[in-house]
């Protein structure tokens, strides 16, 4: 899927207005809890949507930056979040930021929709400080709704679903060290009034009681792997 078609979908068809009416701060706090955001730090949310995660990080005293491929998302977020939060139009594979500037980066429900997720993960490493933490919220192809044949992904133009072991391998091969892996309870039960969606969201609540491999969404908290060349460990004669 090329970026023009993808951008057009998120500008015209995605449910940003619904997200804005029902900002789920409790869910955003769960996503970001493992980052342990400190006051005065710099935080970037890639695929920021209407800005829920940005509002949570701002409340913790972080200097916040949000980026999204969609002008509709950014214009909606502009009316919801603090004016002190910088909102930038861009793609995850080409971040418009300098090297090593962020203490924390999150990609919540967006990495699986990148045209090139590996390129996106490389860009995240580039803009992260050596001590930075990264939150990656990614969907499970082995979730309980998938096993029941109820859920097969969203209607978005491009999407990658993978198992827990596949995401673990993927992040490791991309140069990340996993600190922790958590799970997501899913959207608010009454996000809309469609009966089948309400049933789905009720079922998602029960996944919190199941083994992690059955989760709806995995929440990876990662760090960049440290690469120590052997000659750095040797004394110069």
Order of neighbouring strands in the sheet with most strands: 3-2-1-4-5-7-6
Instruction: Provide the CATH top-level class.
Output: Alpha Beta
Task: Classify the helix fraction into a percent range.
Answer: 25-40%
Poorly predicted spans: 228-237
Tell me what portion of residues adopts beta-strand conformation: 15-25%
CATH-level-4 superfamily name: Vaccinia Virus protein VP39
Q: Tell me the radius of gyration.
A: 18 Å
Mean pLDDT: 87
Order of helices and strands: HHHEHEHEEHEHHEHE
Given the C-alpha coordinates, what overall shape results? globular
Distance between the termini: 55 Å
What is the number of domains? Answer: 1
Q: Which CATH architecture would you pick?
A: 3-Layer(aba) Sandwich
Count of DSSP H/I helices? 9
| Largest sheet, strands/sense/barrel | 7 strands, mixed
> What is the number of E strands?
7
CATH topology: Rossmann fold
Given the helix and strand composition, which structural class is it?
alpha/beta
List keywords for this structure.
237 residues; alpha/beta; Rossmann fold; seven-stranded mixed β-sheet; 9 helices; globular; disordered C terminus
Description:
The chain has helices at 3-12, 16-21, 25-32, 52-59, 71-78, 117-127, 144-147, 164-173, 195-206; strands at residues 42-46, 63-68, 86-89, 102-108, 128-139, 176-183, 217-224. The protein is of the alpha/beta class. The protein has one domain (3-233): 3-Layer(aba) Sandwich (Rossmann fold). Strands 3-2-1-4-5-7-6 form a seven-stranded mixed β-sheet, with helices on both faces. α3 (25-32) crosses α4 (52-59). The chain is globular.
């Amino acid at each position: 899927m090329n970026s023009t078609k993808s951008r057009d979908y998120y500008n015209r068809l995605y449910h940003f207005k619904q997200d804005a009416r029902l900002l789920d701060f409790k869910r955003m706090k769960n996503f970001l809890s493992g980052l342990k955001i400190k006051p005065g730090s710099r935080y970037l949310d890639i695929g920021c949507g209407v800005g829920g995660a940005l509002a949570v990080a701002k409340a913790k005293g972080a200097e916040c930056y949000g980026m999204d491929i969609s002008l509709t998302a950014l214009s909606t977020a502009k009316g919801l979040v603090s004016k002190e939060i910088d909102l930038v139009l861009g793609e995850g594979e080409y971040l418009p930021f300098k090297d090593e500037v962020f203490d924390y980066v999150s990609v919540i429900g967006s990495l699986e929709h990148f045209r090139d997720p590996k390129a996106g993960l490389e860009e995240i490493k580039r803009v992260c400080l050596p001590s930075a933490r990264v939150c990656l919220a990614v969907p499970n192809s082995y979730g309980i709704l998938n096993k029941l044949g109820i859920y097969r992904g969203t209607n978005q133009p491009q999407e990658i679903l993978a198992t827990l072991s596949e995401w673990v391998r993927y992040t490791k091969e991309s140069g990340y060290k996993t600190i922790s892996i958590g799970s997501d309870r899913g959207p608010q039960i009454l996000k809309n009034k469609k009966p089948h969606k309400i049933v789905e969201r009720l079922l998602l609540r029960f996944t919190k009681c199941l083994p992690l491999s059955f989760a709806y969404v995995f929440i990876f908290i990662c760090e960049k792997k440290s690469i120590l060349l052997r000659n750095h460990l040797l004394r110069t004669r």
